[in-house]
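Order emerges. As here.
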Amino acid sequence: MTARLNLLTNPIGTTFFRHFAAAAKTISQSSLPHATEELVKLRASQINGCGFCTDMHAKDAVAAGESHQRLHLVAAWREATVFTDAERAALELTEEATRIADGAGGVPDEVWERAAKHYDEDQLIALVSTVALINAANRMNVMVRLPAGDYEPGQFA
């Protein structure tokens, strides 16, 4: 597969991604657990069919010490016993927000309440921001057909 556009060599794309990276850095400096952040990014990327982001976030998670077992089970998190209740709530919120067009009325209150039970206001803002940011990245990468498989951990650091 060949990308339709190179978003990183175009001046508009470069400027956009500089701001995008600044937003991501803000999230990574929050108190939201890094493992949760990576699991959320991976799950949204799987749902959206973004191979590049699935590859990137799986590799970044492994480089940060995440187990292969947990990464392999993200797509089936409901049946897996390897996630905490907090991580499960974050993954559920991620799925509901990523599939927002599939549900009438957006994210159900009970889904939000399960997440709010485990995360404080700052962490919830970081979680919501992570879901929004990864969904934007997924959509851009899918539109331009960014190929997957060649990402090296920390490549965009």
Notes: The chain has a mean pLDDT of 95. The domain at 32-144 is CATH 1.20.1290.10 (AhpD-like). The chain is about 65% helix and 0% strand. The two ends are 25 Å apart (CA to CA).
